[in-house]
Specification:
By secondary structure, the protein is an alpha/beta fold. It contains 19 helices and 24 strands. It folds into three domains: 240 residues, 4-Layer Sandwich (Glutamine Phosphoribosylpyrophosphate, subunit 1, domain 1), CATH 3.60.20; 195 residues, Glucose-6-phosphate isomerase like protein, domain 1 (Rossmann fold, 3-Layer(aba) Sandwich); 148 residues, Rossmann fold. It starts with a strand and ends in an 18-residue tail after the last helix. Fructose -6-phosphate (F6R) binds next to helix 9 and helix 17.
Length: 616
C-alpha cells in the first residue's frame, strides 16, 4: 500500500526516484509524485495515474536537485486527484512529506492547525502531518542535541495515532532527510556517498545491497554520508546492516509480457529454491532449523492454528488438509482479520503459524501480535526477508522465491503449499509416519518442480480455452479435499485480475445453492483428480451438464471422463497427494492470466488492489 522513496546523494535525484517508483508501483498505483529540493525551494510534480504519467510531466521541468522524495499512492483518505497525491508540502512551504499508512487522529490535528492559520489543499491525513511538522518547526526553539527539524518531526509523531512510514525534508536543510516508521515498512539503502530510504528493497538494489530494516518506533536522520537511528523516545539504536541476496535482474520482466506470467513460469525454480537444503540426509523427512523448536518440543504440540489473508489463507487451508491427513493432528485456519478481533480460545499446546508473502500485511501482523500477547510462540512462513512479520515472529520458514511483483500471487502460493506439505511431513515423521513412507513423500516433493514444468506445457491449450470463455461474466470453481482451497484460489485469481465474478465451492456443496447460477452462461471449472472422490466429482459435473452449464475439467493423467461431459479438458500429471495441490494450481493460474489478457485487463496492476495491504 503506497510506495515511497527518498534519495540524498550526489547524483540527480529525480531519475533514481522515478525508477524506484516504477519498481514500487505494485504497492499502489492511483497517483504519483516527486518533490525535489533545489534552489532553496521544493519543486513539486504530482499526477494521477501511473508513474509513466508522472515521468512525462517531470520531463517538462528542470529537476536537477540531488535530494528528493517520491510516492506512488493507494488512496485511503481522499479521492484519486492530483491534489491528494503525495508529496505534500506544508502551507508555509517549509516541509515536504511522503507517507504510507493512516493517521487516525488527523481530524483533531487539522482543527488545531486551522485555528493556527494553516491551510490545506488536499483531503489527506498526510497533509495534516506535514503541516503539524511545519507548526512545530516554526514554533519550537532549537532543542539541545537535536536539530530543530528532526525535533519537530519527532514531536509530531509522538502525537500521531495510526500507522506510518514517512520521509520528510525541510527547505532550510538541503542534504538532510528524516524518516520514521510505525506499522508501514521502511528500509535504508546505504550507498557510496548517497543514502536511500524506501518501502522495499526493489527500489534500492539498483544502487546498493547494504540495507538496514527500520523497526517500528524508530526514526532516522539521513545525509548523503551518514545516518543515525534512534527511537522516538530518543534511545540510540545500533543498526544491523544486512545484505540483500537478490539482484535487480530478479525484479525485471525479461522476455515476459507481465510479471504474473514471469512468476507463473518461474515456479519450478521457485519450488527448487524453497526446498533446497531442507530435507534430511536420509531423505525421509524435512529439516526446519528456523522453527527454533526441538523435536521434543514439537512433539508436545497437539493442535495447530494458521492465520493469513487472501491467497496465503488458501495455502493455509491446503496445509490444514495435509497436516491432518499425514500427521493426524487437528488444525484450525482463520482469516487473520477475523482472528485479531475474535478472541478465539486457544489450547495450551497449540502451535501458532502465520503465512504471508510480503510479511507486511497488517491483519496478519496484528494476528501474530495478538497470539504473542496471549503467550503463544508464533512462527511465520514468509517470503520477504527482513519484513516486519519475519522479524517479529519467534521463528519460521523463509520461502526464498525471490521478489513477487505481480499483484496476483502465484509463485509465493505454490511455495507456501510446498512448505506446508514439508511441515506436514516433518510433524508426521515425529509421530506415526514410517521411514519408507517418509522417503516416498520426500521423493514426491523433490519431483514437484518437474511436474510443474510438465503442467506448464499446457499453456497453449489453456490459452485457447481462455479465449473461448473470456467473455463470460460468471464462473464457478469446484474441487474437493485438498483441491477445495484450489477452487477458492482459482476463483480469487480470476476475479482479481479479470473482474469476472467467480466463486469457489466444494464440488458437492454446489447443489446447496450455487447450482441456481448454472446456465450456458456460467462455466464451471472442476478439479477431478484420480482417486477415491473422482466418481463423486464426475457426478457433480453431470449435475452441471444437465443444466446446460459448460464444464472445464482439470483431470490427472489416466482419468477418463464420460464422453461429451466436459466441454474442455486440461490434463495435469498424476502425482502424490502432497504435490497435487501445487500442480493443480498451474492450470487455474494460467486460465485466469490468459482470460485477463484476452479481456485487455492490466494483469499486474488490477484496479483497486495493491500488493501488500498495510492498512486495516
Ligand atoms: C491474491 C493476493 C492476496 C494476498 C493477500 C495476503 O492474489 O495476492 O490475496 O495473498 O493480500 O498477502 P501476503 O501474503 O503478502 O500477506
Amino acid at each position: 500500500m503506497c510506495g515511497i522513496v527518498g534519495y540524498v546523494g550526489k547524483q540527480k535525484a529525480s531519475p533514481f526516484i522515478l525508477e524506484g517508483l516504477k519498481r514500487l508501483e505494485y504497492r499502489g498505483y492511483d497517483s504519483t509524485g516527486v518533490a525535489i529540493l533545489q534552489g532553496g525551494a521544493f519543486s513539486l510534480v504530482k499526477k494521477t495515474g501511473r508513474v509513466a504519467n508522472l515521468e512525462r510531466e517531470v520531463a517538462k521541468f528542470n529537476l536537477n536537485g540531488t535530494f528528493g522524495i517520491g510516492h506512488t499512492r493507494w488512496a485511503t483518505h481522499g479521492g484519486v486527484t492530483d491534489a491528494n497525491a503525495h508529496p505534500h508540502v506544508s502551507s508555509d512551504g517549509k516541509i515536504a512529506l511522503i507517507h504510507n499508512g493512516v493517521i487516525e487522529n488527523y481530524s483533531s490535528m487539522k482543527k488545531f492547525l486551522v485555528s493556527k492559520g494553516y491551510t490545506f489543499s488536499s483531503e489527506t491525513d498526510t497533509e495534516v502531518l506535514c503541516n503539524l511538522i511545519a507548526y512545530h518547526y516554526a514554533k519550537e526553539p532549537e532543542v539541545v542535541g537535536e536539530n530543530r527539524f528532526f525535533a519537530s518531526v519527532r514531536k509530531t509523531l509522538l502525537h500521531a495515532e495510526g500507522t506510518y512510514g514517512i520521509v520528510t525534508m525541510c527547505v532550510d536543510l538541503p542534504g538532510e532527510m528524516v524518516a520514521a516508521r510505525k506499522g508501514s515498512p521502511l528500509i535504508l539503502g546505504l550507498g557510496d556517498g548517497e543514502n536511500i530510504v524506501a518501502s522495499d528493497v526493489s527500489a534500492i538494489v539498483a544502487r546498493t545491497q547494504n540495507v538496514v530494516y527500520l523497526k517500528d518506533g524508530e526514526i532516522v536522520r539521513l545525509t548523503p554520508k551518514e545516518f543515525q537511528i534512534t527511537t522516538l523516545d530518543q534511545e540510540a539504536v545500533s543498526p544491523f546492516v544486512d545484505k540483500v541476496t537478490w539482484s535487480i535482474a530478479d525484479a525485471e520482466l525479461g522476455a515476459h509480457a507481465h510479471f504474473m506470467e514471469k512468476e507463473i513460469f518461474e515456479q519450478p525454480l521457485a519450488l527448487e529454491n524453497s526446498m533446497r537444503g531442507r530435507f534430511s540426509e536420509d531423505s525421509s523427512t524435512a529439516n526446519f532449523g528456523g522453527l527454533n523448536l526441538t523435536a521434543s518440543e514439537l512433539r508436545q504440540v497437539d493442535r495447530f492454528m494458521f492465520c493469513a489473508c487472501g491467497t496465503a489463507w488458501h495455502a493455509c487451508l491446503v496445509t490444514e488438509h495435509l497436516i491432518e491427513r499425514f500427521a493426524r493432528l487437528p488444525v484450525e485456519v482463520d482469516y487473520a482479520s477475523e482472528f485479531r478481533y475474535r478472541n478465539s480460545p486457544l489450547d495450551r499446546n497449540t502451535l501458532f503459524f502465520v503465512m504471508s508473502q510480503s510479511g507486511e500485511t497488517i491483519d496478519t501482523l496484528a494476528a501474530l501480535r495478538e497470539a504473542q500477547r496471549k503467550g503463544y510462540r508464533v512462527l511465520a512462513i514468509n517470503n520477504v526477508v527482513g519484513s516486519t512479520i519475519a522479524r517479529e515472529a519467534n521463528g519460521g520458514i523463509y520461502q526464498h522465491v525471490g521478489p513477487e511483483i505481480g499483484v496476483a500471487s502465484t509463485k509465493a502460493f505454490t511455495s507456501q503449499i510446498l512448505l506446508g506439505a514439508m511441515l506436514a511431513l516433518y510433524i508426521a515423521r515425529l509421530r506415526d509416519m514410517s521411514f519408507s513412507d517418509g522417503v516416498t513423500y520426500v521423493n514426491a516433493l523433490k519431483g514437484a518442480p518437474d511436474l510443474v514444468r510438465e503442467a506448464l506445457k499446457q499453456a497453449p491449450h489453456i490459452k485457447a480455452i481462455a479465449k473461448r470463455f473470456a467473455h463470460h461474466s460468471d464462473f464457478l470453481f469446484l474441487g474437493r479435499l485438498s483441491l477445495f482451497p484450489l477452487a477458492l484460489e482459482g476463483a480469487l485469481k480470476l476475479k482479481e485480475i479479470s473482474y469476472i465474478h467467480a466463486e469457489g465451492y466444494p464440488a458437492a456443496e454446489m447443489k446447496h445453492g450455487p447450482i441456481a447460477l448454472i446456465s450456458e452462461k456460467c462455466p464451471s471449472v472442476f478439479f477431478a483428480p484420480k482417486g477415491e472422490i473422482f466418481n463423486k466429482v464426475v457426478s457433480s459435473m453431470q449435475e452441471i451438464k444437465a443444466r446446460k452449464g459448460p464444464v472445464i475439467a482439470i483431470i490427472t493423467e489416466g482419468c477418463e471422463l464420460p464422453p461429451g461431459l466436459a466441454d474442455e479438458v486440461i490434463t495435469i500429471p498424476d502425482c502424490h497427494e502432497a504435490v497435487l495441490p501445487i500442480v493443480a494450481a498451474i492450470p487455474v493460474q494460467l486460465l485466469s492470466y490468459y482470460i485477463a489478457v484476452d479481456r485487455g485487463c492490466d494483469v499486474d496492476k488490477p484496479r483497486n488492489l495493491a500488493k501488500s495491504v498495510t492498512v486495516e
